[in-house]
Structures are given as C-alpha cells and as structure tokens.
Design brief:
Structural class: alpha/beta
Largest sheet: 8 strands, mixed
Number of helices: 16
Distance between the termini: 23 Å
Number of domains: 2
C-alpha cells in the first residue's frame, strides 16, 4: 500500500478522483483551476515552463528535459503521472521527490479556499501543489506532463513558454474522440499563443497540430523537418548519432543503454531546451539517460531471466515495446503478464504483442476499474496463444515465472507498478 496516500487520506478523500473512477465522458474544465491560480495567497507559477502532451513518450520527454537541465547545473521541477508506487513520485525537484510533510502542507493550502461549483479533482490538486512547490524552490525550469488530452487538462491552466506534442495514437476514445484528427485536436492546445511548439507527430496528427500552431501564432518545430537525427549507430552499449537543430548546429550524441523509442523524446527535449534556455550547457556525449520506473524497466530475476516492466497500454506503444524486445532478444519469445483498465483498446494492444508472445497471463488490476481478465484471456486464446487467468497480481507474477523468459508486464501502469512493488519488496526482505 502507498503509505503517503494512506497518511493523506483525510485530505485526498475531499477530492474527486477520476483516475480511479474512469468516467466515459469529460466531467471537468479549466474554470476551477483558473480560480485557484488567481488566488493571491498562492505563489505565481514559475517560468520558464514546458508542458508535454501526446499519446506516448510524455514521461520520457519530461525525464530527458529534467536530466539535461540538471546536467547543465540547473534544477528542474517535474510533474508527471501516473505514479507506480507512491503519489510522491509525481512531483520532483532535481533528484528529490516531494516529501510527505511538504505535500501535506501544500494540499492543506490548496484546499483552504472553497472552489465554487464543484470540488477539486485529485489531478487538479496535485497540479497546483506541484506548481506551488516549484515556485517555492525557484526551479530553473518547470515541466508539466499532461494527464489526459490537453485542451481541458489541469496543466493547461498553468502558464508555459513551450508546448511539446510527442506523438498521437488512438487512446481514451470515449473522452477524446475516435479518430486521430479528433485526438490531435484535443492534444494540440498544449502549444500556446505567445509560446513555441515542438512535435514528433506525423501524417494527419501533424496536419492538425500544424494548423493549431498557425491559428495561435506559435512557431512550430517538427522532428524530421526543422531538427532530427543523422543515421544512428547502435551497439550493445547504446546509440551514437548526431542531432541537427533549427539553428544549424550539429551536436554529437551518445545515449548509453538506449531504447529505440527514447530517441525521439531525447531529440524533442534537446531542441526545446536549445530554444528555451539557450545559455544552458547541453551535455550530450554521453547524454544523461534517466531510469524511469515501468518504462521498459529491465530487472534481473533470481533464476537469471529478465523481467521487463512497461506501462504501455495502446496499440502503437505496445508495438514499440514488442519491437524493442525483439531487438534485444531476437531469438526468444516472451511470457506476458497483461491487464487492462476499463475503457482501453485492449484487443488492439494485446494484438500488438502477438509477434513476441509465447503465452499470456491475465489478471485484474487493483485500485482502478479493470477489464474482465477472462474476456482478455479468451481473446488471446482465440488468436492461438496459450493464456491463463490469475486471481490477483501476486498469483499472476508466480504464474509468469513458471516458464522461461524474457518476461514482460504490460497493459497498464497500475499493473506494472503493482508488480514492481512486489519485486522490490521481496528484494528488500532478501537483503541481509
């Protein structure tokens, strides 16, 4: 259990938590956030600031932004979601996540003033706490990851100087729309009037993002057009390449332990910082490669096999996970532990793993509304892949370990986080 969440329960219970209830339509807007941000007793949100939206790569892009600022002797404040083990993970300054006493104080200050027609949501309150703490700490750069969509997301009420749209795919279709164009239209507003935009989108999504940037008068820099990679040289140790930037510079880059899907995020982060913080020294050879929990996190098992934890849950993001597994272990198929929160396109997501899957173990996700594991397992079996249902995450992990690896946990950040907590708790008990 999350000790921080249990301790803060009297405050958190005053908030509406849509992350847990997962409504099938939008029930929030920016009005409550704007009222809160206008309060005179709260510090002004710090500048410069970056907002990061998109369907995949948001957290990785945020982590590269923060790592590069820190490597240049600055301090970045980073607000991300969801968390894997404790809600304290969501708010960080430099290497330090917010401590329990500070978050308690920030929440009490946010909740001290009535919000009007509706109660604050959990995400709104955490967003305000992050901005307030970053202001107190006088960070050199504030970084906000979008929770859902962009147009109506709480982070969009905060002032920012740059907006990044990583990539777009079909997700949260019940809330954001059922086409790439509709979803792109919801995510594009992270690029603001008076700011600058960066994107790694392509095709229909890029056309929508480009039209939005033109509408608000924001310069837009597109990966592959105004900046991008020269040919990449891969080795077992990492990836080496050259990144060309809009200002004409060509920067040698070496990313140790690189995953292929990290390279667009690194390019977006470097291009953004080169424009937003031109005096920041950019350390790129080697580049700081942050280790993110449950984002292709590789753990070594007691029997010598590897356990890969990834919160990917959409078709395209799971296809990227499958491609990385195939690149690293080209002659081996994986045992997959899979679960899905309600409302996800789990059939498409599970299908993306078929090229690398030897068998599936399916379980329910605790702590949020979950799709029926029996239905998921039946679908996998109908595609010709062995599958079984486990009663809970602990039994599911045991079933996953009964066969050879590599072993993959995917389909939900909640599931990956729960497995991570089981593994790390066991490791702590095994220490002398």
């Amino acid at each position: 259990m999350d000790h921080a969440a249990l301790t803060l329960a009297p405050l958190l219970d005053l908030l509406v938590n849509y992350e847990r209830t997962r409504p099938d339509k939008r029930l929030w807007d920016l009005a409550t956030m704007r009222l809160q941000l206008a309060r005179l007793d709260l510090p002004a949100a710090p500048r410069p600031a970056v907002q990061v939206g998109g369907s995949k790569g948001k957290g990785t892009t945020c982590a590269f932004l923060a790592g590069l600022v820190q490597a240049g002797q600055g301090v970045a404040g980073v607000y991300t979601s969801p968390h894997t083990t404790t809600l304290l993970e969501r708010i960080r300054c430099g290497d330090q996540q917010v401590d329990l006493a500070t978050l308690d104080r920030l929440l009490r200050r946010v909740l001290a003033v009535p919000t009007g027609e509706r109660a604050l949501t959990f995400f709104e309150a955490m967003t305000l706490c992050a901005a307030n703490w970053f202001a107190e700490r006088r960070v050199d750069l504030a970084i906000y990851e979008v929770g859902l969509g962009g147009r109506h997301d709480a982070t969009t009420a905060l002032p920012v100087d740059a907006g990044i749209v990583t990539m777009i795919e079909l997700e949260h279709t019940d809330v954001l729309g059922d086409t790439i164009g509709a979803i792109a239209a919801e995510k594009a507003p992270v690029i603001r009037a008076g700011g600058i935009g960066f994107t790694g989108t392509t095709g229909e999504a890029l056309a929508v993002v480009r039209a939005h940037a033109e509408q608000v008068g924001a310069p837009l820099f597109v990966l592959g057009e105004q900046f991008g990679w020269r040919p990449m040289l891969w080795s077992d140790e990492g990836c080496r390449s050259t990144l060309w930037l809009p200002d004409g510079r060509e920067l040698p880059v070496y990313l140790p332990g690189a995953r292929a899907f990290e390279m667009p995020a690194l390019a977006l982060a470097v291009a953004t910082l080169a424009r937003l913080m031109p005096d920041l020294p950019l350390q790129l050879d080697p580049a700081p490669r942050p280790t993110l929990p449950c984002r292709f996190e590789i753990l070594r098992e007691a029997d010598g096999e590897v356990l890969v934890l990834d919160g990917a849950h959409t078709e395209q993001s799971l296809a990227l996970v499958a491609a990385e597994l195939a690149r690293r272990w080209p002659l081996r198929r994986c045992a997959v532990l899979f679960g899905s929160a309600t409302g996800k396109r789990w059939r498409e997501g599970l299908s993306a793993l078929l090229p690398i899957a030897d068998r599936f173990v399916v379980t329910e996700i605790s702590g949020t509304a979950s799709e029926d594991p029996a239905a998921i397992a039946a679908f996998a079996a109908s595609l010709g892949v062995a599958s079984e249902v486990a009663t809970d995450v602990e039994h599911a992990l045991a079933a996953l370990r009964r066969g050879p690896g590599p072993r993959l946990v995917a389909g939900s950040f909640y599931l990956a986080g729960q497995v991570r907590e089981l593994v790390t708790a066991a490791a702590r008990l095994d220490r002398p």
